Amino acid sequence: MPPHAQAAHPLPVPAARRPAARHRVAVLAYPGMSMFETGIVTEVFGLPRPEFDVDWYDLVVCAERPGRVPVVGGASLHTPYGLEELATAQTVIVPGVPDVTAEPSPELVDALRRAHRRGARIMSICSGAFALAGAGLLDGRRATTHWRYAELLARRYPLIAVDPDVLYLDDGELFTSAGSAAGLDLCVHVVRRDHGAAIANAVARRLVIPPHRDGGQAQFVEAPVTTDPADDRIAGSIDWALTHLTEPLSVAQLAGQAHMSPRTYLRHFARATGTSPIRWVIDQRVRASLALLEETDAPVEQIAGAVGFDTPVTYRHHFGRVMLTSPSAYRRAFRTATATGQPA
Questions:
Q1: pTM of the model
Q2: Which of these, 155, 152, 154, 156, lies nearest to 143 by C-alpha position?
Q3: Per-residue pLDDT tens for 87-143?
Q4: I need a labelling partner for 132 at 20 to 30 A (CA). Which of 43, 108, 115, 179 fits?
Q5: Cα distances (angstroms) measured from residue 71 to each of 16, 27, 67, 98
Q6: DSSP code of 51?
Q7: For residues 344 and 336, what is the distance between their CA atoms, to the nearest angstrom?
Q8: Beta strands 174-177 and 142-143: pairing type?
């Protein structure tokens, strides 16, 4: 048979597998989807990571109707997994919806609610928040989505406190993220929760992304494109600040590194990062303390000084603002995860 005749036949659908119990991650595929968001999930949770010597995730791609799922570009994927697999997974990820103006199907709503009742971790990327909202899972909670859809999400589901600025939100067992690439930030955050900072940072390095991006998605809202050389000077001052986090840092010092006046620096920094220089420095110091909390026995008072805070009281205050918990509680959670092998 000629090669072109063979290609005309549909590919066989592989038989469903049920491996030994591991943390199963189920991601939803839907007709007309872009493969980017699913690729994010596959890259983080689907690739084997034997170098980490931990029980990694078991990823399955599910569809409302198992079989062929057409995707952007005229291609298609085949999956034997349906909503039953989605409803019984430990982590459920909805990477988008076909239409942000339509309600999710009753079958998908039922699967999401069943997963939620079981205590599964449920995540959305970009417009996937509309599926979680349609299932009623986000009522009374904070959530985010792509900045283009934030106003629509708030209008359609007024019981949700929509935050249009953040890259992602962790609300216990429910997670939402902004536009497509913010799904990477969320997935790395989940790895950090499950396996600690060292492994999350290693995954980020393999993806060639920062372990944590600063600022919110407000910095990505459409604006006229500029070729302002000040952006390079802001980046240079940020690089310098990262190597001097333990030292006292002021706006004047940072502005001096960028060869700007403090007032001009504040304006350019906010445009480039979506936040202020001092808040950025504080957030970086909090992030720098995470590995020390997870991997050392140093007292909180010592860690506070080691990352540049004047007093433990100041450190605890800012840690609570950034991480929504205390340093001691964060340490207990991740130490428990390390000892038991369970997600924090």
A1: 0.65
A2: 154
A3: 999 999 999 999 999 999 999 999 999 999 999 999 999 999 999 999 999 999 999
A4: 43
A5: 21, 15, 13, 11
A6: G
A7: 7
A8: unpaired
